[in-house]
UniProtKB/TrEMBL annotation:
Residues 8-20 have a biased composition (Polar residues). Residues 24-33 have a biased composition (Basic residues). Residues 58-278 form the NAD-dependent epimerase/dehydratase domain. This is NAD-dependent epimerase/dehydratase family protein. It holds the Pfam family Epimerase. InterPro entries: Epimerase_deHydtase, Lipid_A_modif_metabolic_enz, NAD(P)-bd_dom_sf. Residues 1-52 are annotated as: Disordered.
Length: 361
């Protein structure tokens, strides 16, 4: 029988001390997968590696998110998957979540000790709008640093890390097509995404210092579609969405199911490195709003302080003001390296993706 968690049973928020002395919380009985583990230990065999007949266990973080749910559903056909949620942003969790535990607490190591993971797919990150700066940094950067140390300690063979194209920053001087060698300028342009850049820098350090971890860093364009709750998806879901007078930058979108396919391909083919992920097509922002069935609300674009005040006044109906430049300047990334390396081609068209939002209005 599945055992549902209550708020009192869940791990406390990052930075608190009560979770340090308690076991990690599970949604399922502790012995759910014990027979297979016990048999393997009794036989004296090491955890099976990626590509072997018994594929080994895979940890997926951010397991409550829509992208992670698609990834887990695809992986479960061939792998033993353990879903971990560390963000503590919800009061109830889907069946894809096996543990709710803060990365910075002692019980998180118990999860590694129990399961002997061969790989980690790190999809969870607290966005700027979801928490305070201190808690966000503790979870995203400090917590991920501990995850990487535990991965080394317990012999993890592979890590897939989800980043974002936002690390490039939005600026009028950006090239028309940005490849993986372009510097991450977002930290200089937007202090609110410093933790995202630091998170990537952390993975890059481990990528080159510890090649045995086989780290692949994925920088997707806008992820959208059913269940996605990021800033751009919320705007496309609204009947009225703001845009800046005189600006309609080109944008790229990838369907959540295509992104899940990209994550699984990068995991199964195991080519470490840094990769942009984006389709070949793109659309002007104002055209995207119309295709999604949104009425456009025009806001003043100059002076910049007035534009930011107008965005703030709209509250949840507009993107955070720190992202305002992404609605002024195009940030088009080159996804050809990932497409060639992993034989990847998105299957959902831009019309189908935006039609999802139109159909739900």
């Amino acid at each position: 029988m599945t055992e549902r968690k209550t708020p009192a049973q869940r791990s406390t928020a990052p930075g608190t001390s009560t979770a340090d002395t308690t076991a990690p919380k599970r949604k399922t009985p502790a012995r759910r997968r014990a027979p297979a583990d016990a048999a393997r230990k009794q036989a004296g065999a090491a955890p099976a590696g990626i590509g072997s007949q018994a594929r080994g266990k895979v940890m997926v973080t951010g397991a409550a998110g829509a992208l992670a749910q698609h990834v887990i559903a695809m992986l479960k056909e061939n792998y033993d998957v353990v879903g971990v949620e560390f963000r503590g942003l919800q009061t109830s969790y889907p069946d894809t979540v096996d543990y709710v535990v803060d990365f910075n607490t002692r019980p998180f190591e118990d999860v590694f000790r129990e399961h002997g993971f061969t790989a980690i797919i790190h999809l969870g990150r607290i966005r700027f709008t979801q928490s305070t700066r201190g808690r966000r940094y503790s979870a995203n950067v400090t917590g991920t640093a501990r995850l990487l140390r535990l991965a080394l300690k317990y012999g993890v063979d592979q890590i897939i890390a989800l980043s974002t194209f936002h690390v490039y920053g939005a600026d009028a001087r950006n090239p028309s097509l940005i490849d993986e060698e372009y510097p991450m300028r977002a930290a200089n342009l937007m202090r609110e995404v410093v933790d995202a850049v630091e998170l990537e820098n952390l993975f890059n350090i481990y990528l080159y210092k510890h090649p045995e971890l086989n780290i692949a860093i994925l920088r997707p364009c806008h992820i959208a579609g059913p269940g996605i709750n990021n800033e751009i998806s919320r705007m496309l879901s609204q009947p009225v969405a703001p845009c800046l007078l005189g600006f309609s930058p080109l944008m790229q979108f990838i369907h959540v199911e295509d992104m899940a396919d990209a994550v699984v391909r990068s995991f199964e083919h195991n080519h470490p490195g840094v990769y942009n992920i984006a389709p070949d097509d793109y659309v002007a922002y104002q055209d995207a709003l119309q295709l999604a069935g949104c009425r456009r609300l025009f806001l003043p674009s100059v002076p910049p302080v007035l534009a930011r005040r107008a965005v703030r006044a709209l509250g949840r109906y507009a993107p955070p003001d720190y992202l305002i430049n992404f609605f002024k300047y195009a940030v088009i990334i080159d996804g050809s390296l990932f497409a060639r390396t992993f034989d990847f081609k998105p299957q959902r068209s831009l019309t189908e993706l935006l039609g999802h939002y139109r159909g739900n209005k």
